Each structure stands twice: as C-alpha cells, then as structure tokens.
Amino acid sequence: MTLVLFSLGVYTAATGSGLACQAQWPLCSDQLIPALTINPDFIEWFHRAWAMVTGFLIVGVAGWTWLGSGFDRRTRLAATLAVAILPLQITVGAITVTLSGLVPGGYAVSTHAAHLIVALAIFTLLGLATIWGGGRGNARLLRAAAGIAVAGIVASALFSRAVPVLTYAPPAQAAFYIAGLAGHLGLVATVAYATAAVRSGYDGLDAGTAAIVRALAAGSMTALVGTLLLGRDLVLYTATWQGINLVALGVAVALAAGAMWTLRGTGELRDGSVPIGGD
C-alpha cells in the first residue's frame, strides 16, 4: 500500500493534479468526493483517499506488533516510529497543496523534497518492521535481497529521466519509483540480514564477508536515494545534473552487484556432500 501510494503521489504531481481541488485540503473543489471520472480533481482525491487508508493500516501494523506475540523490541520500535512521523507526512502533504490557500508557496521544491524524504523514511521503517518481524534471516534470504536490489535498480534506470530510453512522462515517473523503491527495499533487507549475519553468523557466511556486503549495500542505498530525489523536479535538470544522475545510478548498480557477487555460493554445500553425524 505504501509503495503504491508513493507512485500515486508521483503520478499526481507529474500530471499537475496536485494543484487540483482548487488548492483545498481536505475538501476537493468544495466537495468531500468529486466527480468519479478521470480528471485532475479525481486523481488528487484518489491519492488522498489511498493515503488515508494506508495511514490507518500503518497504525494497525504498529498496534499488531505490540498486541501480537513473537515480535521483538526493534520490530515494535520501527513500526511505532513509522506512526510517529506519519502526522509530519500528512502535514507536509497538506502544505504541498497549499492548505486551502493559507500557506503561500506551499507547492514548492522544499515541500516536495520534504514530502519525498519523510515518505521514504516511513517506507524504510515499514520494511524493517516486516523484515525483523519475519523471524531470523539466513544466507538464502540475504542472496535474494541482494538480487532484488540489483533488479530493482536496473529496472528503475530504464524508466529514469537520466537514461533516454523512454519519455519521462507521468506513467514512466510512477514506474521509476515503483522499481527504485523495490530496489531500495532489497537494499534495506540486505543491510538488515547482513547485520544479523555479522552478529550471529549464517551457515556458509562468515562475519567478514557479511560486513563487506553490508557496506556495499549501504553505499548503494545512499546513491539510489540520490537518484530518487533527482527523479523529481527538485533541481533545474541540466546536462550536468543528468550526468550526476547517471553516475549515481551507475554507483548504485555497481555496489549492489558487488554485494550480490560477494554472496555467490554462500549457504550452499559446494561439493555436494552432506554433513556426517557422530563422533
């Protein structure tokens, strides 16, 4: 739900629908529910409605971690922090559409950047709550996370404004963020599982290798976040910024691929033998 909300928000802004609803919030053009046809008012309203449902689900996830059994402190903390910063995201979103015209310049670069960064923080915290709440990791999950990271980053590059393969139209922008965030979630999982491996170890994976994988994934994540920020109209997108964007994408792919390569064969019995019991 949060991943889809990200793409809906990007699509809404890219189509100019964020300025629809006569710059009103929470009403839309003096209505609670606008005409249910594909128009700017409906796109903006649907984005808000999806955000509201997602917000309630985020609160529900946090409650589940506290009321359910088997969740550790870090899982509860991640889910609770997501709820704690949710009001900030709602407030920034309201300011972005100018809060019924009361906040001049609300639809500005600074609020767009803040809206994106806070949303990314919530998405990351929910990812950590899911990963940590799912039980102990293993080398197979670590390899899968690194593979998802590489696939997501490469796919995002195909939709990126830095790579002239597709026109960076609203649908392409939404697809860029879906792919990029999938890659980001893969990197978050890679860092989380590698950290667990450093602390307790996985079969076939030593702490030194896990530490290298964690460092590579963290570096890739930093570069990828830069591309996600450059995917919005936060700068005057000149040839220089396009070059910086391409470098960031290249670094993100290279480091994630390095992590995946480092993990090749871990957790597997390479010679086909089986453990022997007894003295």
UniProtKB/TrEMBL annotation:
Keywords assigned: Cell membrane, Disulfide bond, Heme biosynthesis, Iron, Membrane, Metal-binding, Oxidoreductase, Transmembrane, Transmembrane helix
InterPro entries: COX15/CtaA_fam (IPR003780), COX15/CtaA_HemeA_synthase (IPR050450)
Main location: membrane
Transmembrane domains' residue ranges: 46-67, 79-102, 114-134, 141-162, 174-198, 210-231, 243-263
GO molecular function: metal ion binding; oxidoreductase activity
Annotated localization: Membrane
Record pathway: Porphyrin-containing compound metabolism
Topology of the protein relative to the lipid bilayer: Multi-pass membrane protein
One GO cellular component term noted in the UniProt record for this chain: membrane
Keyword Ribosomal protein attached: no
GO biological process: heme A biosynthetic process
PANTHER family in UniProt: HEME A SYNTHASE
Name the UniProt record assigns to this protein: Cytochrome oxidase assembly
Species of provenance: Halorubrum californiense DSM 19288
